[in-house]
Amino acid sequence: MDPRSEVLLRQAELFQGSVLLAGLPADDLLGRLPDAHGWCWHAGDQAALDARFAERSHFGVNAPERAFDTAVVFLPKSKDLTDYILNALASRLAGRELYLVGEKRSGIEGAAKQLNPFGKPRKLDSARHCQLWQVTVATAPEAKSLESLAQTYELPLAEGPLKVISLPGVFSHGRLDRGSALLLEHLDKLPSGHLLDFGCGAGVLGAAVKRRYPHNQVTLLDVDAFAAASSRLTLAANGLEADVITGDGIDAAPMGLSAILSNPPFHVGVHTDYFATENLLRKAAKHLKNGGELRLVANSFLKYQPLIEEHLGVCAIKAEGQGFRIYRAKRG
Ligand SMILES: C[S@@+](CC[C@H](N)C(=O)[O-])C[C@H]1O[C@@H](n2cnc3c(N)ncnc32)[C@H](O)[C@@H]1O
After folding, report:
1. Ligand 1 binding pocket mutation candidate from 200, 209, 244, 324 (most atoms within 8 A of CB)
2. Which residue in 186, 221, 241, 249 has its CB near the most CB atoms, within 10 A?
3. Which stretches in the chain have pLDDT values below 50?
């Protein structure tokens, strides 16, 4: 059981009614709170919740339409995303309770201040290195539309300017990451066919390759519903068509790919997690057709080359700069 769920269950009597659990972990909490429902934006957690508690968790960037009497927010890692989720739920909880739970090392103490606009927050519990906060929503805010929180920047690409639109919580919100910038400079000579942008975030790489190689089919994949929604906005803003899918890891990707491009994930929340990337490197060959290429950017200190060579083939360093490397390997 996630420690945040354990803290909720210390006060289980508060959560017996129709409670909405936003950003809930994929543990047994729904089993312990029979009238609770979830709102999830992580495709892997959603799949695990669906498998155990069918129809009990809603996936997406908007709060579920079903009514709820109270809501608990599991503190997201981004402050902007926390604001969006709290606002969306508080707008539907006039005179009722809104809770925020999170780990101390994730900054729950400071994040509790984000409850101030709705009433007087108070700390209900502190245990298992977590805190549980509660506010009675005295002033229900007007719900902000997600699009109004989007940030846009423009990239001057050789093929013309590319607009990138990112939503709260999405990697490198409102600006181009240095690693992604390096990869954008090295998109030449990609094999043509079906290209995948793995871990697409706001869709900058996928949109750039679609712009550059319009006859290729492009798929963008991310585990996070806010990233997928951002990618759709980015593609639409540039008049580009591509498939955007949510899924957990390379296993969710199509087969027969000509190229996989990625600035792969290596942090999940405050925990460092190489699993999704290592799994990508191990299984890329299965998803690439013969002659297909994996091209990725990573911090120079991350030692991906041996893993790529073990599972795919000879791996060259195509470029290096500002602490990043571009790796390139073909399926032989
Ligand atoms: C370093 S960011 C790169 C984002 C974007 N491609 C860019 O260049 O700005 C990595 C992305 O991988 C996504 N990600 C993390 N774990 C994943 C998983 N298991 N499956 C698919 N995507 C994942 C994250 O949500 C994040 O958007």
Report:
1. 200
2. 221
3. 270-272
Q: What is the CATH number of the domain that holds 296?
A: 3.40.50.150
Short-list 213, 209, 181, CA closest to 197: 209
The verdict on 48 and 191 lying in the same domain is no
CA 173 – ligand 1 centroid, Å: 12
312 and 204 together in one domain? yes
Between strands 324-330 and 288-299, the pairing is antiparallel
Are 154 and 124 members of one domain? Answer: no
User: How many Å lie between the centroid of ligand 1 and the Cα of residue 323?
Assistant: 19
Ligand 1 near 224 CB (within 6 A): yes
- Domain membership of residue 58 as a residue range: 3-143
**Do residues 205 and 139 share a domain?**
no
Q: Model confidence over 107-160: pLDDT tens digits? A: 999 999 999 999 999 999 999 999 999 999 998 999 999 999 999 999 999 999
The answer to whether the CB of 204 is under 6 A from ligand 1 is: yes
Residues 214-223 pLDDT 10s? 999 999 999 9
